[in-house]
Amino acid sequence: MNPIAIELGPVNITWYAIFIVTGLLIGAFIGAKEANKHGIENDDFYDMLFYLFIFSFVGARLWYVLFDGYLIDHLKNPIEFIQVWNGGLAIHGGIVGGASYLLYYSNKRKLNPLILTDVAAPSLILGQAIGRWGNFVNSEAHGGPTTYEFLSDKLHLPDFIVNGMYINGTYYQPTFLYESIWNIIGFIIIMTVLRPRFRNNYGIISGFYLMWYGFIRVFIEMMRTDALMLGPIKVAQLTSLTMFIIGLFLLIWKKGEINE
Predict the structure, then answer these.
(1) Using one digit for the tens of pLDDT, what is the confidence trace for 216-226?
(2) What is the pTM of this model?
């Protein structure tokens, strides 16, 4: 597939960038609405969002270069740390970077950090669902080889997805689609079930997000062929398992508070 969406002379705008920006804008809109319901004014929210994006972006890039297998080369040529067009971003690093800033901001403003993570969770999970389509256009983040019959006859995928998963003469598992659909379902659960019931029980939505996203990524990483590695261990799988466990303990803790 052609990753270039718009050509403006020497400047090319990619589909990946469009999907990422779309996810950010929709996430910002939803996040602002959620923040208002928790007493956070728009000016404060967008000020927070600006720095949150910076920390998330830096975290995503650093995470990628730390585990892409070329760290020594990057250290010899530090300019590579900012050359995102010669590598990529890692969502787990973005989550760690963003969470770090939210902890700082909550301490600065004397807020419960779980309020901020609950506000961020629905925006994040929906943004991840949208962003995965950028991976599809770039023919990346896919699973192992499969067949046309599996994609078309068993999964009944539309032709444009089937054709998009035909890369260099081989059909591949559309792991981007599995994760995107799973995240959309998670977003719907948060907005229709958890938010109305547990809006003021801070931490329930955050715990659900950590478990929901952590669960799917553990299994997605079993199929992925381009995973970042730490020795023989897939970094995303280890991180996702850690997220799941943290989310589980958070839900158990909050459930205990609710039952008191």
Answers:
(1) 999 999 999 88
(2) 0.92
